[in-house]
Design goal:
Elements (H helix, E strand, L loop, with lengths): L1 H23 L5 H28 L1 H45 L4 E8 L8 E4 L12 E3 L4 E8 L4 E5 L6 E6 L5 E6 L5 E7 L9 E4 L11 E10 L5 E8 L8 E5 L1
Antiparallel strand pairs: 1-2, 1-12, 2-5, 3-4, 3-12, 4-5, 6-7, 6-9, 7-8, 8-11, 9-10, 10-11
């Protein structure tokens, strides 16, 4: 049986070789070439069918299937690696939050950011803790890097946080280095500005800004950010400074509400 298949295969190879020679021959006239190729067409068709069947019989078919399975497995492993990276990042962030809570001199309630207020997208957050979780209105909100804002509205299971970048936000602050006081306000472009800085103050870029502890909302000495630019506004009797927040408020995922 094996010898027979081998002979058939050899005959088909001879036929295909003859067709090639005839098709390229310059001594055989065109009409003659067409008739010869037409005569051999059934054999060529049989060869084509044989080769198609051979793809599924010869080892190449199993190799192709094996390669396909290996590619799928590689893709699956790559997805798992990316998923593990996300889990590892989440774990590191939560550990940092837990360790930070232990160092705070006051009790805090961890909450997860679950959305932003559509009417005030860039300057307010929605978190997954409310009255049932112990969150109270007009309490300061922190991250592991610094001040975030204050609790503006409280529901039973969620709360709205007003960020320090909101134009309606006002926080008593001071320069850490020289204890120069001022007021931190938000702006429509999502930046912060420290105003009412004395004209004779030597405030400069790079100075750290912290909470002054005025009132009942924001505890004293919480890091707020860093001065990046100092201005003297025309017609004003004070200087102002642009402050870069310590935390990137657009990327917050977890926060701490002071209880």
């Amino acid at each position: 049986m094996k010898d027979r298949k081998s002979k058939i295969f050899k005959v088909l190879i001879v036929i295909i070789s003859l067709v090639a020679l005839i098709a390229t021959s310059k001594t055989i006239t065109s009409p003659a070439r067409v008739k010869i190729v037409d005569f051999l067409a059934p054999s060529l068709k049989a060869l084509h069918s044989f080769l198609d069947s051979a793809k599924n019989i010869l080892p190449f078919a199993s190799l192709r299937e094996e390669n396909r399975l290996l590619r799928e497995r590689i893709n699956l492993l790559n997805r798992k690696v990316e998923e593990l990276k996300v889990v590892s990042s989440d774990n590191d962030r939560l550990k940092e939050l837990l360790n930070f809570r232990k160092t705070m001199p006051f009790t805090t309630i961890p909450a997860q950011v679950i959305g932003r207020d559509p009417s005030n997208w860039s300057n307010s957050l929605i978190v997954d803790k409310g009255l049932d979780g112990g969150v109270k209105q007009n309490k300061a909100v922190l991250s592991t890097k610094g001040l975030v804002g204050r609790v503006l509205e409280v529901g039973r299971y969620s709360s709205k946080i007003l960020l320090i970048t909101d134009p309606n936000s006002k926080v008593g602050v001071m320069i850490q280095r020289n204890r120069q006081g001022g007021i931190l306000i938000g702006s429509p472009d999502g930046r912060c500005k420290m105003i009412y800085i004395a004209l004779d103050s030597d405030v400069m870029p790079g100075d750290k800004v912290i909470t002054a502890g005025f009132g009942m909302i924001f505890p004293k000495d919480i890091i707020v950010g860093e001065v990046v630019k100092v201005d003297k506004e025309p017609g004003r009797l004070y200087k102002s400074a642009v402050v870069k927040t310590a935390e990137d408020l657009s990327k917050l995922e977890e926060i701490l509400c002071i209880k």
